[in-house]
Structure formats: structure tokens, C-alpha cells
Amino acid sequence: MTDTTRTEPVRRAAVREPGRFARFWASDFAWKFRHSPVAMVSFGVTVILVLAAVLAPLIAPYDPFNPASLNLMNGFTPPGEPNAFTGDEFWLGTDDQGRDVFSTILYGMRISLFVGFAAVMFALVVGVLLGLLAGYVGGWTETIIMRVADVQLTFPSILVAMLIFGVAKGFTPVEYRDQMAIWVLIFAIGLSDWVQFARVVRGATLVQKDREYVQAARLIGRSHWAIMLKHILPNVLSPVLVIATISLALAIIAEATLSFLGVGAPPTQPSLGTLIRIGQGFLFSGEWWILFFPALTLLALALSVNLLGDWLRDALNPRLK
């Protein structure tokens, strides 16, 4: 007679299920990612830039916003060349105030990414809630929400953001405007970008609300909010995530545009758009690096996020599987 107590652990180990990471790595989504050079490169560039912005206090060789660390004698130092007066060298040169351009890019990218992420999350919450209400409730609620969305779509989003920013800043006390400028900017960009989320979620909700699982939830007495948030919402998130990724790139560009026009981030908290506006004033005097490197960083960040969003749209599209 064989001893089955000793062979039982071996059998259990042989039939052990793979972990979550192994299942994800073997999924169709991961296979498409591994075989898409554009997705891998754009994801790598995005991760590098985001980590560089998050770890800016550790990576940046100087604190560009600390007046005690600035030396006006280092102003307009070309990239990689020693300063004629102090002998200091800077990788990407310095601006008119002697600030290291590399350090200002890292800190400015933190502001741009924070505004972009926060504005997209705000637009996502507002758009998803209004889209769920419009699709599930219908009637006058749907008519009012979608007519407001249609009216807002007739205007360029950047103009809507400028209008909202100006109105919101007008209601802000003068002594708090610089401190609240970033939050007002997030509010303006978020309100100008909720329409895309609402339209997509409303269309998906119209399809899902007549499914059997929704009717079963109604029969057992679930509330309308519970049905919308716990049953319908998880089934309409795939297109929302794709739109959020693409909207992140658009929000970063919108923030840079507003800051370039002088109605965005304050000079005390400069973003990439503010740095580009400052460098634009020195472009024709020969100090090209003050504009070139922040603009190149903004281009790489927006392009990589946009390409990643385009790949997600194709990878999550069931018609292309």
C-alpha cells in the first residue's frame, strides 16, 4: 500500500494555479503590449518623465525656486559651457535669473502633470455621473444634460477654459489668487472637458440599462444609485479609461497653452507652459535653450501619453480583436 499522505503535497504543488501577474502576462492585452513597439516606447517615455517629475527634489541638482541658491552671474549660461564669471557648468544652461533649466523643467513638469491628472479626474467624475444620470433616468434630465453638452461642444475647449478661469479668478480674493491659481486652473480645464466622458457613458448606459442583470437588480429592490454605481458603471469603464488617457495629454497641452498666454500657473509656481513663455522672450536674442528644452519636454510628454491612449483605444476595442 502506497503512502498517499506524502504524495498529496506534491500533487497540490503540481496543479497550483498561476499568480495574478502570470495570468496578466499571458493575457491578450499583455501580448498586444509586448508586440507593439509604439506602446512600449510611449509607455517607457511616460514612466520616465513621470518618475522624473515626482522625484524632482531628489534628481534636480538645484532648487530653482529658492532665491538663496540663485546667482544672477550665472544668467544666460549656454548648455554644457562654463560660465564666464563663475565657472559653473549646467547641463541645459540657465535662464535670465541664473536658474538651472534642467531643474526648472523637472519642477515645472510636476505642476503640468499635477494639473493634468487632477483636471482629468475632475472631468471624469463630473462626466461619468452626468452621463449615468442622462442614460439611466432619461426624460428631461437627459435632455437638459445633453443640450448643455451640445452647446459647450460648439466652442473650442481652450476658450471655455479661459472663460471659466477668468470668472473663477474674479470671485477669488486678490490676496489668495496666486495660492489658488493652480486649483482654479484645474477647475477650468476640468469643466471644459467633461462633455466627452458624459456622451460616451450616456451611450453605454443606454445599452446596459435594459440588460438582464439590471432588471434582476431592480426586482430584488436595489436603489437606482446602487444600480448605476455598482452594476452599470463597472461595465462602461473601458471606454472611459481610454478617453481619460487621451484627455490627459489634451489637459497638459491646455494647461501649457493657458500658462503661455499668461492666464495659467503663476510665476511663483511655473509650469512647462510658463517656462516656454519666459523662453519665448529670449529666442531671438540667441538664448535658444531657454525655450527649446521646455518645449521639447512638453512635446515628448504629450506625444507619449497620446500614443499610449491611441494604443489603449485599439487594444480595448472588441471589434479589432
Which secondary structure elements does this structure contain, and how are they paired or packed?
Elements lengths: L3 H11 L5 H6 L2 H7 L2 H18 L1 H4 L41 H37 L1 H15 L3 H15 L5 H15 L2 H15 L3 H8 L4 H9 L4 H24 L11 H9 L8 H27 L6
Helix pairs in contact: 4-6, 4-15, 6-7, 6-9, 6-10, 6-13, 6-14, 6-15, 7-10, 8-9, 10-13, 11-12, 13-14, 13-15, 14-15
Assigned CATH superfamily:
MetI-like
User: Would you identify the CATH architecture?
Assistant: Orthogonal Bundle
The overall pLDDT, averaged over residues, is: 86
How many domains comprise the coordinates?
1
Helical fraction: 55-70%
Distance between the termini: 53 Å
Mind describing the biggest β-sheet? none
Order of helices and strands: HHHHHHHHHHHHHHH
**Strand portion, in percent?**
under 5%
Structural class: mainly alpha
Q: Give unreliable regions as ranges.
A: none
Number of strands: 0
Rough outline: globular
Radius of gyration: 25 Å
CATH C-level class is Mainly Alpha
How many distinct helices? 15
CATH fold type: MetI-like fold
Keywords: Cell membrane, Membrane, Transmembrane, Transmembrane helix, Transport
GO biological process, one term: transmembrane transport
Transmembrane segments: 38-60, 111-136, 148-168, 180-201, 232-254, 288-309
Domain ABC transmembrane type-1: 109-309
Quick take:
This protein is mainly alpha-helical.
